[in-house]
Amino acid sequence: MIINISDLIRKNISKKEINVVLESKNIVDSYETIDVLDPIKVEGVINKIEETISLDGVIKGKIVLSCSRCLQNFNYDLDIEFHEELTNDPDSKDEDLIFINNDDFNLTKIVENNIVMSLPIQRLCKDDCKGLCTVCGENLNLSSCDCENSNYDPRFAKLKNLFSNN
Ligand SMILES: [Zn+2]
Ligand SMILES: [Zn+2]
């Protein structure tokens, strides 16, 4: 979604509010494609103080993530506060600034970047997710398996060695 701020830049207003719903059905990152479940809403305000244009807002919505432990998909609520600074100075060398071209900028890109950056490295469907059995692959949240005892009990490991030597 392109947001035009010519009124901020050309006229004497110092503030512009945004309240929009993005159309993104998914977010394509360099590593993955994240499905969007509930539309992403963005509420915020663009402020212009002298030559500095800033954007502060809140991102809400619901996306689908894959659990780092059990690999099942789960719904993840977004509630992200963000802050960006923008410039329409073509000579600006500051890489942290978002460049405004023809009085407008791409809000979708800013919002998607903020969502991707806010995601935890370890994504868990629930705090105590038991994950998958490393031996048989069973989802231990849903059922249990007999693998652990035979594999992790050192006494059994010794017995196994004894038998395999014969
Ligand atoms: Zn899980
Ligand atoms: Zn198992």
What percent of residues are in strands? 35-45%
Discrete helix count: 4
Q: How widely separated are the two ends?
A: 71 Å
* Unreliable segments of 5+ consecutive residues: none
| Sheet with the most strands, sense and barrel status | 6 strands, mixed
* Mean pLDDT level: 88
| Secondary-structure class | alpha+beta
Helix content: 10-25%
Bound small-molecule species: zinc ion
Form type: elongated
DSSP E strands, number: 8
Order of helices and strands: EHEEEEEEEHHH
In terms of topology, how is this protein built?
Blueprint: E1 2-4, H1 6-10, E2 15-21, E3 26-28, E4 33-49, E5 52-66, E6 73-87, E7 98-99, E8 104-106, H2 107-118, H3 147-152, H4 154-165
Parallel strand pairs: 6-7
Antiparallel strand pairs: 1-8, 2-4, 3-4, 4-5, 5-6
Residues 133, 135-136, 138, 145, 147 line the site of one zinc ion (ZN).
